[in-house]
Design brief:
By secondary structure, this protein is α/β, with parallel strands linked by helices. It is built from 14 helices and 18 strands. InterPro entries: NAD(P)-bd_dom_sf, Sacchrp_dh-like_C, Sacchrp_dh_NADP-bd.
Length: 397
């Protein structure tokens, strides 16, 4: 009998609830909690079958989290709330002795910066308490890290060059919208670029480096070098890597909107006075932009996310490309969400499953690539995110 608590009722939380509810052999009891209980109730009603219990909780407040966790007594807490709330939820899990899993690393609310140091600092406390914390179990970070671990285990003696490529070739029909929380999305893609090369980080201006890359079933798309959090853990856990980069596609119209948002100050994360009230421009912008969780109905096209790797196997150079393509309409038909939410929520579900079935279980704080990739990779094929691999091909990078 396994009990799981999901915190967060956005698009990703919707997918996690749907997928867990369809797996009663693993997830016997499920609670979905959020600051707004009505959102949880709507998701639970849509799933039906009395599979989902719901609750209200403010994830910024450790005592509220502790009270809810102690009342429900889950085996694991799955955090799909905001990255700002990672540490309070980790604190609550530590206090209650419950395992923890998230999909994105912590970033402070008052600074557009994300890195793992804050969460890695919990390792000894979790280890001493005998609790498992699993970090970054979405798609990127998450599946891309597991793809890398799978490649290292089965196809390479040494990985030298890693390029993670993320293409969303879908069309939602809106002039401008973000595919996940606008606050987080805009903060992420407007930061300076950064990549790992020869033992050090190299910083670039936002979107300074870009080139066309060809994506399976999609074709050529302009791809931009940005910084993404899994690079930090992957170069730590695979020290043979000489260079690691992350590429993401953006349409010209999207970038134009983004530049305007920045130029007029709407991407600011510091408060400004408006009619005597402090407001944060990016939080106001989030309120007027389309809700990412409601984009799915008219979303057409596919995502394509994967790893392009070059390294050595049996003394010879080898190239390898492993990827998943996900169709927005197929994702919407199953869960009522678009593919970006789907590709994050399914891996979070599988990660919780790995813990509950004992396949990923160790005291301490771990990134997903530190566990055995094989059982996770098997479940991806079963749970809606099948992967493909190409050997000794032109990886374009």
């Amino acid at each position: 009998m396994s009990k799981v608590m999901i915190i967060g009722a956005g698009g990703v939380g919707t997918v996690v609830a749907h997928k867990m509810a369809s797996m009663p052999e693993v997830f016997t009891e499920i609670m979905l909690a959020s600051r707004t209980k009505s959102k949880c109730d709507a998701i639970a009603q849509k799933i039906g079958g009395n599979r989902i219990q719901t609750a209200q909780v403010d994830a910024d407040k450790v005592p509220e989290l502790v009270e809810l966790i102690n009342s429900f007594k889950p085996d694991i807490v799955v955090n799909v709330a905001l990255p700002y709330q990672d540490l309070t939820i980790m604190d609550a899990c530590l206090e209650t002795g419950v395992a923890y899993l998230d999909t994105a690393n912590y970033e402070p609310k008052d600074e557009a910066k994300f890195e793992y140091k804050w969460q890695w600092a919990y390792h000894d406390r979790y280890k001493d308490a005998g609790i498992t914390a699993i970090l970054g179990c979405g798609f990127d970070p998450g599946v891309t890290s597991i793809f890398t671990a799978y490649a290292a285990k089965h196809h390479f003696d040494e990985i030298h060059y890693l390029d993670i490529v993320d293409c969303n070739a879908g069309d939602h029909g809106k002039p401008f919208a973000t595919n996940f929380n606008p606050e987080i999305n805009i903060r992420e893609v407007t930061q300076k670029g950064k990549y790992w090369e020869n033992g050090q980080w190299v910083t670039t201006e936002p979107h300074e480096i870009h080139k066309p890359l060809t994506y399976p079933e999609i074709g050529s798309r302009e791809s931009y070098l940005i910084y993404h959090e899994e690079l930090e853990s992957l170069v730590k856990n695979f020290p043979t890597i000489k260079r690691a980069r992350f590429w993401m596609t953006f349409g010209e119209e999207y970038l134009t909107h983004l530049r305007v948002i920045q130029n007029i100050g709407m991407a600011r994360i510091d408060p400004v006075k408006f009619k005597g009230v402090d407001i944060v421009p990016i939080e106001f912008l989030k309120a007027v932009l389309p809700n990412p969780g409601e984009l799915g109905e008219n979303y057409k096209g596919k995502t394509s996310i994967g790893c392009r790797i070059r390294g050595i196997k049996d003394g010879k150079e080898k190239t390898y490309y492993i990827y998943n393509n996900c169709d927005h309409q197929v994702a919407y038909k199953e869960t009522g969400t678009q593919a970006v939410s789907y590709t994050t929520g399914v891996p979070a579900t599988i990660g919780a499953m790995m813990y509950l079935t004992g396949k990923w279980k160790a005291p301490g704080v771990f990134n997903v690539e530190e566990f055995d990739p094989d059982p996770f990779m098997e479940e991806l094929n079963k749970r809606g995110l099948p992967w493909n691999e190409l050997h000794d091909v032109d990886i374009e990078l």
